[in-house]
Amino acid sequence: xxxxxxxxxxxxxxxxxxxxxxxxxxxxxxxxxxxxxxxxxxxxxxxxxxxxxxxxxxxxxxxxxxxxxxxxxxxxxxxxxxxxxxxxxxxxxxxxxxxxxxxxxxxxxxxxxxxxxxxxxxxxxxxxxxxxxxxxxxxxxxxxxxxxxxxxxxxxxxxxxxxxxxxxxxxxxxxxxxxxxxxxxxxxxx
Length: 190
Fold this sequence. Notes:
Structural class: mainly alpha
Number of helices: 10
Distance between the termini: 48 Å
Shape: globular
Strand content: under 5%
Order of helices and strands: HHHHHHHHHH
Largest sheet: none
Helix content: 55-70%
Radius of gyration: 16 Å
Oligomer: single chain
């Protein structure tokens, strides 16, 4: 895969489409051996594709850099991908957004979750869009194909924590706020 120049100055939808497809291909390659935690062990790439789809199709986001960041949002956290690699292929802005939404896996899970809540309000607008779409997709997945062996209580706790993150992202995008609220309204009961 040849490094891509940052899309500034690109003209025409075909160039933007090629840029987004390059990001989808990069993410698919990086996540190729990973599976979701649902009972069917779905291919992991389904998740970044769903996040990008929520942004593009449901929220009407047409910034290719935001869509690319959505496709790449878990690559640093869950693969051997570096920020420099993303920057070389997709530009510094996309790399920055991916870094903003990346958890530090060296920290305990409870600390990572606390930091997500604490830092949500300080994210850039593109990172807030990606983070909110990610939470929407996670709620949907918990309802339709939850991780194997998750109890109703664990599902409820995830919903409540995701709402804490989403509350600090409110006002970033009305449609995404409404989509999150619609999913949260289906909160599993203990």
